[in-house]
Write a structure and sequence with these properties.
2 strands; alpha+beta; single chain; 1 helix; about 30% strand; two-stranded antiparallel ribbon
Amino acid sequence: MNEEALNMSLRKFLKVVGVTSQQEIEKAIRAALANGRLKGNETLKAQMVLTIGDVALTHKVDGEIKLA
């Protein structure tokens, strides 16, 4: 295994995950604010699950997103 190739590939994947996840979260929150489902002062519980079936990996991260 080439450690440098693995490192670069992981960084690229995680960058895409981070950027696209942020965009999707912001879009969903803006839509919920626009249609009245959110007021804008909530703290939202969030969960991210990463799975890689070929290595039997499931990694879960729980957190909060504060709107105010």
